[in-house]
Amino acid sequence: MCTHCNNSNCSDCNQYTSSQTHICDGCQEQSCEGCAVKDLSTDCSVFTGDSIECDSVVVVAKNTILSDALANIISWSCTKFTELATYLRIVNVGTGASIYAGDNLIGEKKLRRLKSTNGSVIITQGTDDIDFSVPAGVIPDGTETKIVNGTNTTVVGTGTTPTPYQINALNSTYSNSNLGTGAQIYKDSIIVGSNTQFNLRKIKSSNSSVNIVEGADEIDITVVAGIVPDGSETKLTAGTNTSVTGTGTIATPYVINSTDTNTTYSAGTAMSLVGTTFNNTAPDQTVVLTQGGATTITGTYPNFTISSTDIDTTYSAGTALSLVGTTFNNTAPDQTVVLTQGGATTITGTYPNFTISSTNTIADGSETKINSGVTTVISGTGTIASPYILEITNLQKVITYPADFTGTNYTLTNADNNYTIIVDNAATAVTIIVPSGLTSKIGVGFIQKGTADVTFTASGTTIQNPTGLKIKGQYYQTFIEQDGNTNVIYLLGNTKA
What we know:
Layout (H helix, E strand, L loop, with lengths): L45 E2 L4 E3 L2 E4 L3 E2 H22 L12 E4 L5 E3 L10 E4 L4 E4 L19 E4 L9 E4 L16 E7 L2 E6 L9 E5 L4 E5 L18 E4 L9 E4 L12 E4 L2 E4 L14 E6 L2 E6 L12 E4 L2 E4 L14 E6 L2 E6 L17 E4 L9 E4 L2 E6 L8 E3 L7 E6 L5 E6 L7 E6 L5 E6 L2 E3 L5 E2 L5 E6 L5 E6 L1 E2 L1
């Protein structure tokens, strides 16, 4: 039996599907006995109107119990209010007084009104604009600024357009001079009528090796990164019979060693070296004969007597010996020293006097070979009279659009290392691609000759710059340098976003 406030419509329960909410739901479980009309519970009421929708979404369906209907409305309202609050945001930008004053407790956006407390500004609100104007008679005419006479000056006029202030100097003289040593900034002065123009020289770097940045109160001069020489710019390459170690810096200077052993001679056993002449210091070698068995040996070098009690033994002279009766004699008491020439050395003469000569003359420095490198040119012979001179060359190339570009792209290669590249792109924006896999510590300079942008783009690398990846403009310079053997590239010089 349905007891929802004695409602008599329970007979209609069978008309509703399980997806609908109806007063008859739960008729067997709930009881409204004793409900007074004035205290009618929302659980005992049903919304019987048409379903309430918003943007095709049903907020409250027909025949929904009133408690659920109210909960649905509140949930929907809170959701929409949150969406609206996060969707519409107003912020003050720039500097000065803020127009937007924030939100109130019901989410309204508050804007400050404009006013002029002292009435010095007239504010007129129009349909689409707000007009600001100064009342007549308040507009300044120059007389507000007061100027009085100072030392050696006189002031005439009222400060208005018809009679402007005129400041006159009283017999003042001016002079300028450059102090200290070095380049002079003050050039000269030019007097035209009552005006004295002082001319100061501008500061520049013709080869772009120095960065010059003009500030409000100062001029900042710095050396371009990688320009300060430390000795490593001079490249030495090992040649024949020569090795080179070190980097050329103060910490690790270049050390040049020669592996040519043909220029040094020393005397060995039983030999002496005087100048370029070798002599045998032991020309006569004593023959030593050792007796044994039935044989005895008497006498001294070079005459020996060999006797034997063995009369049946037959003796014969061997190499370099003669036998006369029972006496052996050394037939070659003096052994010739054999010297073999080779390389740049020749040997003449006979034992015991030899002359050893060499076409490899006394070292004068020309034996050390130094070859030119990529950025260096070497002149001279390495002698005292003509020492080696190592000069750094300025490697420069011009890339022209479109001849040297693929489309509008130019990809750096190892062949660009140590070059200054002039980008002649005219009025076409171009891109310099910096790929990975370049030679370690690669460094390349750039000068923009054209008027259109020149942009640097990484390809497998990371380009670091605090400002941007474009050259600042026509005739500005940049420089890239790799961080060791990594894929990090530093972009230096004049850049923009």
